[in-house]
Amino acid sequence: MGAISIDAATNRASVNSDECVECYACFRGMSMEKLNPSFVRGVRSFLKLFRLRFDPEPDVCPTSAITPDELAWPRVVRRAFSDPQVTHESTGVHGRGTEEVKTNDVTNRVGIGEVGYVVEFGRPTVGVRFRDIEKMTVALAKIGIAFEPNNPVTHMMTDKAAGKLRDDILNEKILSAIVEFKTSIGNVPAVLAKVDQVSKTLDTVVAVGVSTRCEQDGASALDAVLVDEGLSFVRGKTNLGLGHAS
Amino acid sequence: MTNTLHRYGSAESFSDDYIVFAIPARGHNDKDCVEKERRFLQIAQKHNPVNLGDASHGCIYRPSKDLKPTVHWRRDETTNFEAVQSGVSCPTTVAAVFDNQDSVVAFIKELKTADLGLSINISGALDKAQECARRAGLERHSVEYSLGFFGQTDRMADRNTLELSTMCGHGMISFNLVRKLVEWVKQGRRTPDQASTTLARFCSCGVFNPTRASRLFETAKKG
């Protein structure tokens, strides 16, 4: 996000709270020393006099200066959608809070002839505001998409049929969020065309994934559809079918 | 683990990148899954993973909150597999990263025998994942394809940066940190392995592949 910078007036690092998505990467990912801040500033100033700069480990905060803030609604949604170690209360899943076809061998959520979609906003590392997500969900709702109920973004909708999100979160910026839904395989070209069209109007990037249940021999009917659409695919997730209900 | 779906790179660049993960389905088999997830990690460790992680508690590479100033000259870069296994305490996603197909196949064969009941997925190049499944005597049940990025793709970083940064799809590895480390590797201020370990500490799920990262840093170094 680039939310942390040195304030020229105070000569101290400051966080742009409008840009910060509360991912906690700085607090959790950085290692810490516990040096005296005055000492550290003194050494830095001395070196600066001679146009020198210390070559420290890039992921160490010398003074343990980074501390998390107490978050209140609606800002707390930033953390829920940005910090992968926070469990989404709505789905009980970490990360972006979605199971997709990762558990399809147990849930049979996406059947043969059906296609599951994961439309993810703000990834990689660009970020997104909910108002941009809403532009997409409203557009998808207009073409008859029914959103996956067990999904954190769907839980933020006040009108699921219209794809409308809560007004009080629309300006909140998050690292990324996933909208999930499924259609029959015949609708893939129309849905992907709509996603592509709306994506161009958003102030972020959109990562798209599609999934399906395979035949007994592992064949996927989606291969031909995607090739016909001129889409290339190299990478993905392969569910091995070893899961079962306990 | 959608965080592993959209890794950036060509098909060849995924030749040393296989993530095998286990996930319980909420309300179906998540009641007694903690012990099964620990078992998954124990089995994985036998097959020489290059990373291992629990999405709730971290991976074998961890930041430290109480370092001494000597860290800037002598950094302890030991990995802690035991902490990952013993740390699992609630239903979560557990993952093991491998840099070769043979280890993946052997691991899956053993998982099949163990019959943990958790959903097991391979994230990687689709053809190679299917090959691994077949070599282990399985056909894939379901498949998810990454179709890449739409919208304002000009806001994304360059290829080198994306290949490294997207190894944590949750976005915990910033473009700026990757750019800085690529520059430092080029200048000889850090080795590719040191730079790779630095990035790995930010990916708490443990799906970052340090072998692939070192290779990418090495390539970037040459220009």
Question: Would you write up a description of this structure?
Answer:
- The complex is a heterodimer of chains A (246) and B (223).
- Chain A has a domain at 86-228.
- In chain A, 26% of the residues lie in helices and 21% in strands.
- Chain A has helices spanning 25-29, 37-49, 76-82, 104-107, 130-142, 152-155, 188-199, 222-228; strands at 4-7, 12-15, 31-32, 60-61, 114-121, 128-129, 157-159, 164-165, 173-174, 177-184, 205-213, 235-239.
- Chain A has a three-stranded antiparallel sheet with strand order 10-5-11. A two-stranded antiparallel ribbon of chain A has the order 1-2.
- The radius of gyration of chain A is 22 Å and the shape is elongated.
- The mean pLDDT of chain A is 93.
- Chain B has 223 residues and is of the alpha+beta class.
- Chain B has one domain (2-141, 154-218).
- Chain B has helices at residues 33-46, 81-87, 101-114, 126-135, 159-165, 175-186, 192-200, 210-222, and strands at residues 18-23, 51-54, 58-59, 94-98, 119-125, 142-151.
- A five-stranded antiparallel sheet of chain B has the order 3-2-4-1-5.
- In chain B, 58% of the residues are buried.
- The mean pLDDT of chain B is 95.
- The interface between A and B is large, with 94 and 99 residues.
- Strand 12 (235-239) of chain A pairs antiparallel with strand 5 of chain B.
